Amino acid sequence: MEWMLLPLKRYFEFSGRSRRKEYWMFVLLQMLIWVVLTILTVAVAGGAGMMAGASADGGASGMLGAMLGMGILGIVMMIVWLGLLVPSIAVAVRRLHDTNRSGFWLFLMAAPYILGYIMVVVGVASESSTLAAVGGILSLAGLIGAIALLVFMCLPGTVGPNRYGADPKAGEHMEANAPTAI
Questions:
Q1: Which residues neighbour 132 within 8 Å (Cβ) at sequence distance 6 or greater?
Q2: pTM for this prediction
């Protein structure tokens, strides 16, 4: 649990290095949070749907309750997403630092997606199939960038200090290379 919460303790810390364990445990924490919130959303929508079928007014009050409940959960999900955005980016940057890469590698994934999305929207709005197609190709480039980042996040960090700081596993490397007493 300590590894899951460590990026929240280092909220705005973009310098230094983070181990794979810290990064992936935080990813796991985020996934668990999203699974719980999704289950709550489905439960609220399903419960309200059952109420709508059983109500005397043809379901209007049940659907209103569902919309209110899902609206509140939507706001909660947005707050959670905003709260986790900065530590997610920070731990990803520190993880890239551990592999001796700059945090700007995150743009490898983000920039093509954002630019591609904008081009698709503009292309559809202006009825330009060429612009929309180029946007789709840029989105594909973003997917390739995401795969490259996934590989970077899975690679072990550089052993010993690098240009971004000391090795977060320094004590473990020492113990692994220490001679054993007979």
A1: 119, 120, 123, 124
A2: 0.78
